Amino acid sequence: MNAQKQISLENRSTVSGAGQPTENTLEVSTQITEQQELQNLSTIIKTWRDLNKEASTLKEQVREKTKRMKALEEMILRIMKKNNIGALDLKESGGRILYKRASAKEGLTPKNLQGLLATHMKSEEAAAAALKYINDHRGAKVRESLLYERE
User: Fold this and answer.
1) Where do the structural domains in the chain lie, given as residue ranges?
2) CA-CA distance, 112 to 61, in Å (whole number)?
3) What is the pTM of this model?
4) Which residues contact 38 (CB under 8 A, 6 or more apart)?
5) By three-state DSSP, how is residue 29 classified?
6) Which of helix, strand or coil describes residue 146?
7) Is 77 in contact with 98 (CB distance < 8 Å)?
8) What is the distance between the alpha carbons of residues 132 and 123, in angstroms, rounded to a whole number?
9) How does pLDDT run across 34-80, given as a tens digit for each residue?
10) Cβ(14)–Cβ(22) below 8 Å
11) CA distances from 50 to 44, 45, 99, 116, 148 (A)
12) pLDDT digits over 69-95, tens only?
């Protein structure tokens, strides 16, 4: 079985004397045999594994910096609340830090949804039936990915 890749480059130009456009098409065709694909697979896997390891290291560094940032953010918020400060102008960067308060809805976990439906429908059985229907007819998202397991 042969895999075939085709690259097509188009070059359109006009001839100065006749003024008629001419079309030059350059096609580069490469054929990769199954044997060559399997030989390349080893190097591709090694490269992917190295990048995976590097990404894991970078993610760990991001987690550490995020923890430090949250701790500093809590300190800043506490000081701003305590001193009733709504905004701070930063001379160094020319920016501002604003104290902002927003509320968000709770997540619709099965337990939370069950309680809300039971309250609304005034019946545990009707709430359970509605929840069962919702869970049975929910759409599912399929994700495909690679996982590297260390030995």
Assistant:
1) 30-102, 103-137
2) 35
3) 0.49
4) none
5) strand
6) coil
7) no
8) 14
9) 778 888 888 999 999 999 999 999 999 999 999 999 999 999 889 98
10) yes
11) 10, 9, 42, 48, 10
12) 999 999 988 998 899 888 888 888 888
